[in-house]
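Hey, can you fold this one?
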Amino acid sequence: MSFRIEDKLYINRNQIVDFKEFLSKNSAQPIYKSRTIKSLYFDNKNLDMYNDSIEGLTPRKKIRIRKYPHGEDKALYFEVKNSSVEGRFKTRKIIDEDKFNILSKKGYLDTQYGVCFPKLYVTYQREYFKLDDTRISIDRDLQYYNFRTEKFFNDMSTIIEVKTSINKDQDDLIKMFPFQKIRFSKYCLAVDKVLI
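Sure. Predicted structure:
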């Protein structure tokens, strides 16, 4: 387990070209091909993960199953993202189709949140860059789908995520990325749009 800093930056959709020029001028390098990400998020009947995230409470977590539907990687990844006072970390393991079907129907028993069931899908296109010891991702074309109904929402936002070691000096990070930081959760926004 290694803790990390995760910041999200506000970049107007019309400024993405400028942001990519900023990355290029600072010698950021692409590290993966752009790919589609599809995540199935779980929560309990009271949506406690959603509420804890909205309130900024710690410790909290998000539980999801992630896949890359159009890429070479066909694995299903069961992931738990933990947020604590020390920082953030993610655990990940590969599951098979049978396990996916069981979790989809019977839910997942979590020690903090109890029985959690699939609530919604979040799908988006991600580009990956690296600048020194910092990873930058650009997420666009977000789509939210209610797991049980046909309700969906197309989100025109573009989200920039900056991830680096917990040991990174915050002042250095601010100098590297002189953009407005925001609190943003794809899962929480999806709940607002297709569940509540």
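The chain has five helices and eleven strands. Let me know if you want another pass with a different chain boundary.
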